[in-house]
Amino acid sequence: MSHVALAAILLLLAALGYTMGRRRATALSGGQARRLHSLPSYHGLYVALWCALPAAAVLAVWLVAEPQIIAVLLMPSLPPGSAGLTDGAFQLLLGDIESFAAGRAPEAGTDPAVIAAARRLSELRQSGFILLALAAIALGAGGIGWSRSRIRPGLRARNAVERATIVIMIAASTVAILTTVGIVMSLLFESARFFAQVPFSDFLFGLQWSPQTALREDQVGSSGAFGAVPIFAGTFIITLIAMAVAVPIGLMAAVYMSEYAGKRARAIAKPALEMLAGIPTVVYGFIAAIMVGPALRDAGEWVGLDVASESALAAGLVMGVMIIPFVSSLSDDVMNAVPQTLRDGSYAIGATKSETIVRVVFPAALPGIIGAVLLAVSRAVGETMIVVMAAGLAANLTANPLQAVTTVTVQIVTLLVGDQEFDSPKTLAAFALGLVLFAVTLATNVIALRVVRRYREQYE
Amino acid sequence: MNQPIAFTLKPTSAPAVAVDSPPKMSARGVDVFYGEKQALFDVDIDIHRNRVTALIGPSGCGKSTFIRCLNRMNDVIADARVRGSITLDGQDIHDPGLDVVSLRARVGMVFQKPNPFPKSVYENVAYGPRIHGLAASRGELDDIVRASLERAGLWGEVAERLNEPGTSLSGGQQQRLCIARAIAVDPEVILMDEPCSALDPIATARIEELIDELRLNFAIVIVTHSMQQAARVSQHTAFFHLGKLVEQGPTEQIFTSPRDERTQGYVTGRFG
Ligand SMILES: Nc1ncnc2c1ncn2[C@@H]1O[C@H](COP(=O)(O)OP(=O)(O)O)[C@@H](O)[C@H]1O
Ligand SMILES: [Mg+2]
Q1: In principle, which of A375, B14, B237, B242 could form an S-S bond with B251, CB 3.0–4.6 Å?
Q2: Does the residue B65 lie in any domain?
Q3: What pLDDT does A458 receive?
């Protein structure tokens, strides 16, 4: 809470710096902004940045380093003999101190040495914060004073501000990139731990998936338990069904919207179709599980087919409907981007509208359409909610869409739901599956984006 | 700029226009509206075989609008409406008995910006013959493609590149490819809407030579904003102004002794 207050104070200070810088620049110019190298507002920003950036840097460093610094300072006040404790016991002791300091433990029944240490911890934290606040505010004020004194008509405040903006933007993109790198790293490391216990080839080519059997210590990595082929096959079947629904419907909708629909029809139809993508997937999930699944089973009974009430077909059909807009909207865009002059050229030779669409518009848009389909594939492969609710959990190795199957995403969910140890092969398997999923969707996305980009270049 | 344009009639091998022969196409009382706005007023003109007819006039005066009437390309524009009579060999092109597809096979068009399809050079030229079923075999199609490219003066340059995309050619080559594409269906009239405006002078000169050769076999209508070009390639010139056809006649007469003072002003460069 008090950190927030400190940040607010610094922001106010920066705002003050802005006004001061601006005023000073205006005063120096004698009312003629043209005598300044940069506009007064840049001088204001210059002062504000000098106020806010150093203070913010100190704040950031403190937030990261505080626990370590406090821990070192706390060492002398720990109960005697704690230096000789085992690692686990030492962590427990620290935990006790921490929870007492946070007011979560009653005073009665707590070791007085712990209470003393906790008091010391609170003191340290408090004085640390006061020091931090003083330092940050002093830095901010100092920044204002120093930068304001540097304001001259010739000061290149605009260039300085622009450089600072670039640095801020680089920092922002670094955060995004580092996050991705961090996620990939943790996937890689956890998967490596998994593959230390289960051979890579067993995972990739094994036909048996039953992670539960591996829970008992003596059966770790028991042969066949982590064969992921049935899961990949399930994902594949459901994706295939979904694409079989989404590609034809999406493409025909796209052709209608871009070539036949009038302006008004298009203005209504396109957002309406895109709304399909905005429906929460959990809603699709229960439609698949409660309506489509049982309906398929009943229909199957009627014609004498044995359809499971949780089936690949039900999940795939509903998922297909969900990704229609991924296909239709992008395809519509790329077909619209085909220049009218190409259509005119075709009409002028005597081609009809449908000939023009099939022979000119469609081929010209094909790379973009392939890109759209690939993006839809990667969406289907990564989709979780619908399959969790409607495809079942059984890791059947089957090509029959009427049976229950399971997918990579479903297995990740079931492996991690509930209380789990974080170093059993069962939980680690989730990381390995996640890694595979990531690799597949990344590859499809990269290919799709490349194809789309190549197409764009052709017409610009 | 007030100098009259130097006017030279190149001696050509083309047959002289038989003015008393019936016109290939003929427009009478043509009005065009875009929505409520009238863009063309009461245009009368005859298009003759073996003759290049140039449409000139300041930009926005309706030249493109008129040339697009001749193969009913204005049908493609939702709010365009054409009134009046236009005939091809005496038959009304708006006659329900005449299919717009066969009209456009007989009246080809080349556009301002070269617009080859994103297909190979070969497929670009073969497009029309395939659609209209003009070739019974691959061999025949090959012959049509080759003959069209030769007539468009492009064969020598692309004979080895038939399978490369049409878009990989230079601008001038692309425009000649579009001309080849248009003549591959063996039309009777070729419409060209500012065919050289996106080209450099050398490519322009090649197209102009080509137009002069094509005149032997086709009736040609060309829109141009360059008076020099009209003077170089055409035998008949029509001057449009604010949606009206102000004056038409033999090109030499339009450029040397125009009757209307608006024409005079335009050809001597006083406006436009
Ligand atoms: N598709 C269209 N919709 C509405 N108005 C148009 C359209 N095309 C042309 N016009 C109008 O018709 C007039 C003639 O245009 P155009 O025939 O293109 O002239 P030009 O080719 O002689 O420069 C212009 O005023 C133009 O704004
Ligand atoms: Mg025009």
Answers
A1: B237
A2: yes
A3: 60
Q: Distance between alpha carbon A168 and the CA centroid of its chain, in Å? A: 21
Give me the mean pLDDT over the A384-410 stretch: 84
Question: Quick check: CB of B41 below 6 Å from ligand 1?
Answer: no
Phi-psi region of A81 (alpha: psi -120 to 50; beta: other; left: phi over 0): left
Quote the ipTM score: 0.89
Count of CB pairs separated by less than 8 Å, A with B: 65
Alpha-carbon span A182 to B127, nearest angstrom:
54
B217 located within any domain = yes
Count of structural domains within chain B: 1
**B59 CB less than 6 Å from ligand 1?**
yes
Residue B32 lies in a domain: yes
* B170 Cα: distance to centroid of ligand 2 (angstroms): 23
Q: Within 10 Å of residue B138's Cβ, how many Cβ atoms?
A: 9
Cα B122 from Cα B168, distance rounded (Å): 13
Calpha distance A40→A31 (Å, rounded): 10
The answer to whether residue B234 is domain-embedded is yes
CB within 8 Å: A344 and B119: no
Nearest to B242 by CA among B27, B41, B35: B41
Nearest beta carbon to residue A342 from set B76, B109, B115: B115
Question: Can you read off the two tokens belonging to residue B161?
Answer: 């590149």
Paired residues of B120 in beta bridges: B165
Ligand 1 atom nearest the C-alpha of B58 is 22
Checking if the pLDDT of B99 tops 70, the result is: yes
pLDDT reported for residue A252: 94
Q: Is the pTM of this model over 0.80?
A: no
Query: Element (H or E) spanning A177, and its range?
Result: helix A157-197
Q: What are the tens digits of pLDDT across the range B6-51?
A: 555 444 444 455 556 889 999 999 999 999 999 999 999 999 999 9
pLDDT top residue among A14 and A392:
A14
Question: How far is ligand 2, taken at its centre, from the CA of residue A281, in Å?
Answer: 51
> Residue B14's pLDDT is what?
46
Mapping DSSP onto H, E and C, the string for A323-347 reads HHHHHHHHHHHHHHHCCHHHHHHHH
Task: Find the CATH number of the domain harbouring B90.
Answer: 3.40.50.300
Does residue B96 sit at the A interface (CB-CB below 8 Å)?
Answer: no
* Structure tokens given for A314: 């039900």
3-state class (DSSP) for residue B269: coil
Q: Which of residues 176-195 of A touch B (CB under 8 A)?
A: none
Does B152 sit in the ligand 1 pocket, CB within 6 Å?
A: no
Whether B104 shows a pLDDT value over 80: the answer reads: yes
Domain of B30 in residue numbering reads as 25-112+182-267
- CATH architecture of the domain A210-459 equals Orthogonal Bundle (1.10)
